[in-house]
Amino acid sequence: MTEREVETVERKDEIVSGKTFLGIEFGSTRIKAVLTDADHTPIASGSHEWENRLDHGIWTYTMDDIWGGLQDCYRDLKKDVKEQYGVTLTKIRAIGFSAMMHGYLAFDKAGELLVPFRTWRNTITEEAAAALTKEFSYNIPQRWSIAHLYQAMLNKEEHVKDIAFFTTLAGFIHWKLTGEKVLGVGDASGMFPIDSNTKDYDAAMLDKFDALAEPYGFDWSLRDILPKVLVAGENAGTLTAEGARLLDTDGELEAGIPVCPPEGDAGTGMAATNSVAVRTGNVSAGTSVFAMIVLEKALKNVHTEIDLVTTPSGEAVAMAHCNNCTSDLNAWVNLFEEFANSFGMKIDKNELFSVLYNKALEGDADCGGLLAYNYFSGEGITAFDEGRPLFARTPDAKFNLANFMRVHLFTALGALKDGLDILLKEEGVQIDKMYGHGGLFKTPVVGQRIMAAAIDTPVSVMETAGEGGAWGIALLAAYMAQKEEGESLADYLSKRVFGGQEGVTEDPVPADVEGFDQFLKRYNEGLAIERAAVEHL
Questions:
Q1: Residue 93: count of CB within 10 angstroms of its CB
Q2: Rounded Cα distance, 497 and 515, in Å
Q3: How many CB atoms lie within 10 A of CB 400?
Q4: Do 313 and 423 belong together in one domain?
Q5: What residues does the Carbohydrate kinase FGGY C-terminal domain cover (predicted)?
Q6: 180 within some domain
Q7: What is the mean pLDDT of residues 475-498?
Q8: Do residues 363 and 403 touch, judged by C-beta distance below 8 A?
Q9: Nearest Cα to Cα of residue 67 among 106, 24, 96
């Protein structure tokens, strides 16, 4: 037998005997499933494309979107397993579910959804976020679950009195499949502030919120309706018979599989890039973009541009989050593809991205005076409730393809750089390692080099970066099942998963760093143009 055939037989045996781990993550445009072997190597995958919808001014996904998408994704995974190994997936050692953080899913005592799911993308809680930030002396962004709850209270929404439980998307999936109303600490830190000493919700802030809620006369306290917080490695329940049927509509998946604490996409990104230790960071760049740095000490000041969340094991993390990243960039690439097709040229999409991205490296350091905004939706860091994709230039700007692609790559990280400059320049936060993952980094070198220019720090991409959050939550499931007593998540990842690999690193190019700073000055001065576009377009 060939080496490949031997490997296939070994993996088939692992699948049949239930030694694999499954991670499923709900991203903003794709639900992805990754099945790994006991050594954390991905051996099968499945996916389902989906998109949020704007319904009566609310960005949402319907229950049919959620369950239909999950079932289709799992079905695709089963198909991949069957085609590769000739067996049916029925046993799994441990499973984990993760999803986009934040948002608002509220339920009554009967478990019925009270209002349509309000996703992280909504910027409708400005009043509540500002009031809570002031009350707590702690930044509460608009997309946080507690901001959504308090805004609903301020709006005197009828459903609030009937709330028995509210949670995130990952927490909802986990609850329905296991019966457990729990949440991993990283995802929980995007619902309500976490005390990193207790690895639980901040008790003083809980009391402050209940004092704010007291005049409303609800028969619940905040502690009653939040999910229980768990840290990485804890058992979060098992797949129920009903849950197994929900996941696998064929009824072939066995119940009783242990499930790890559900996590947010920030936490799974940290796990997937080995960036859960102090002074490490990672940036996830896709439809949205966020960068996280694990802190060695508390920040000196409250910054409304910076989220304070945690790793899956509860360490404090500073996070700069932007709603917009590659959507506008992708739209321009699609336009170039349409242009090529009009001339009868059929170009491979990956090659098209590669050529256009690399063209950006030929441009002027500061993009030749061009300006663009990638705002498909509002942007918290720059204080926009709505967005308008925009490209502008002066008559004497150096308008060519290289600068055009470069400015759209730069602007994909423009708002993020504003946020990171607060951490790196104002707060003096130190980063030893920054890891990149997500669509922006699929083309070798280019995304890393642009990111390195933005933060003046080396940026590494691991060979496994393309596996993303679904692989990250599979790692957390494996950690729960395989960790030794006292073994930290950081040690488990460094020694057992990544084994010292550093990935491919791009150092910042001084001219790029200076060029990005020049672009950012133009970017911030031009925000008035973007504001006018929102008002008049």
A1: 20
A2: 37
A3: 15
A4: yes
A5: 282-480
A6: no
A7: 95
A8: yes
A9: 24
The structure's pTM equals 0.84
- Residue keyed to tokens 């504003």: 418
Residues 422 and 318 in one domain: yes
pLDDT of residue 501 exceeding 80, the answer is: no
- Determine the residue type at 512: D
Same domain membership, residue 465 and residue 532? no
| 115 and 40 Cβ atoms separated by less than 8 Å | no
Residue with tokens 């830190």, as numbered in its chain: 189
Is pLDDT above 70 for 159?
Answer: yes
Report the run of H or E that residue 413 belongs to, with start and end: none
Work out how many domains the chain is built from and give that number: 2
- Output the CA–CA distances (angstroms, integers) from residue 285 to 6, 25, 295, 322, 416, in the order listed: 37, 16, 21, 10, 10
Per-residue pLDDT tens over the stretch 338-393: 999 999 999 999 999 999 999 999 999 999 999 999 999 999 899 998 999 999 99
Shared-domain flag, residues 387 and 344: yes
Q: 380 and 498 in one domain? A: no
Enter the tokens of residue 260: 């790890």
What residues make up the domain containing 428?
Answer: 274-323+416-507
Find the mean pLDDT for residues 163-171.
Answer: 98
346, part of any domain: yes
223 contacts: CB under 8 Å, gap ≥ 6? 201, 206, 210
User: Which two structure tokens, joined as six digits, stand for 366?
Assistant: 């500061």
Is 300 part of a structural domain of the chain? yes
Read off φ and ψ for residue 35, nearest 5 degrees.
Answer: -105, 130
Q: Clarify whether residues 342 and 483 are in a common domain.
A: no
Residue type for position 453: A
- Per the structure block, which two tokens stand in for 245? 């049927």
pLDDT tens across 260-310, in order? Answer: 999 999 899 899 888 899 999 989 888 889 899 999 988 999 998 898 999
In a shared domain, residues 281 and 343? no
Compute the distance between CA of residue 265 and CA of residue 155 in angstroms, rounded to an integer.
29
Closest CA to 117 of 155, 67, 75, 72: 67
Residue 334 lies in a domain: yes
Rounded to the nearest angstrom, the gap between the alpha carbon of residue 10 and the centroid of all alpha carbons in its chain is 33
DSSP E strands, 70-163: 94-99, 105-107
**Cα(first)–Cα(last) distance of the chain, in Å?**
65
Could you tell me which of 190, 151, 150, 152 has the C-alpha nearest to residue 168? 190
Tell me the DSSP string of 343-409.
Answer: TT----HHHHHHHHHHHHTTS-TTGGG-EEE--SS-BTTTTBSS---EEE--TTS--SHHHHHHHHH
SS3 484: coil
- Both 496 and 529 in a single domain? no
Q: Which two tokens stand for residue 89?
A: 């997936």
Q: What are phi and psi of 310, to 5 degrees?
A: -140, 165
d(CA 419, CA 292): 11
Which CATH number fits the domain that encloses residue 438?
Answer: 3.30.420.40
The Cα 9–Cα 376 span in angstroms is 47
d(CA 143, CA 190) in angstroms, rounded, equals 8
